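Continuing the batch. This is chain 6 of the set; chains 1 through 5 are on the previous pages. Same settings as before, nothing changed between runs. Recording input and output for traceability.
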Amino acid sequence: MASRTVLTTGANSGIGLATVLELARRGYRSVGSVRSEAKAEEVRRAAAEAGVAVETVRMDVTDADACAEAVDRLAPWALVNNAGYSVTGAIEDVDDAEARLALETMVVAPARLARLALPHMRAQGGGRIINVSSIMGLTTTPLTGWYQACKHALEGLSDALRMEVAKDGVRVSLIEPGGFKTGIWEEAEREVARRAGSRYESAYRRSMDGARLVQVVMGDPAQVAKVITRALGSRAPRARYLVGYDAQGIALAQRFTPTVVKDAVTRLVLGL
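Output for chain 6:
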């Protein structure tokens, strides 16, 4: 495994950090992308505490030149597209610039990195691409429409890519976590604070109140990291991995709950 390089984006916290540590424990050459030296130091500190070796690379996933330089230098056997962030806001409250940045970070960048990595994977006789989606890639709720748009798009891109590169021995999998204890919830709180004065202010408040209640029972990101590592090591990885009981429950409810019922219940809870 030490000869197999795995590049994980967004590695300084949450699922990304847990993943680079778990991969290092499993013997891979684990490299995490970060956007600053301060974040690189966070990764080094966590790796030292865990007693493993993790490399870092400075790379903003929205910088095409930086992505090309990093991928060509590392020639990864596997790519874990994890970088992303919360986009909390009603469609009416999110401007074009916010929407474009979200799409660039969570849709265009993963596709770009996959495109750059594929020649290196073919040269090695195969490889793995893991795209970290979300249960929100399978369902839709109010106030996070642009985040969900990104994850829905990532699901579609991953499905197409999986079939396109299968003959080359490159396997593509989606990871669809439910709620886990990551920094995304603090990001959401800050975004809601910026929406003060919105006509949806009451709905935002109800949404955040609900999120705070369930955070106490959310799982550790290490659970997701273990699933990612399992997918990387499998001879026949699955197309999708739902992670968390809440994700499994939501996916089941999505299949069997009529849209009119789901809409009515959601609107009632959020006061919409």
